[in-house]
Target: Transcriptional regulator
Amino acid sequence: MDFQVVRKEALPSTFRTMNSDRPDTVGARIRSTRLELGATIRQLAEQCSLTPEGLSMIERDVTGVGLPVLRRISAALGKPVSYLGKFEMLPVETLGQKIKKARLYRGLSKTELAREMNVDVKSIHNWESDKRLPSNNNVILLLMELLTVLDDCLS
Model:
């Protein structure tokens, strides 16, 4: 996306750089990326069909951000949804956690993954919560998903 560059001296000092002791959060990643591009909060909000107040709340971690909004922000900032969403930090101890991480890393909702795999959303939910194991056919599809994510992580 093309953003009009804002002169840094025009920004209050608190917005020039991220506070170094601020935790690495989804909001912090969005804000720092926006500032690196020289975009104002109003410009990014407009690109993402958000209000500036709503985007500000996301950047300050006052409110969470859903996957559809995160995808719009990701597209506007030119950063992977996996980076902005901090999905690399998700646990991978169980098969369900690995499935969820792979899904989110690709920026897919449960509905979208279910549609892609030709299963119902409840199946995805049950797999991710480790309530049920996928059938043999679905295990092969899920392994392909996990390998795609692993490839993305390593490249």
In short: The mean pLDDT is 84. Residues 8-88 form a domain with the 434 Repressor (Amino-terminal Domain) fold (CATH 1.10.260.40). The chain has ten helices and no strands.
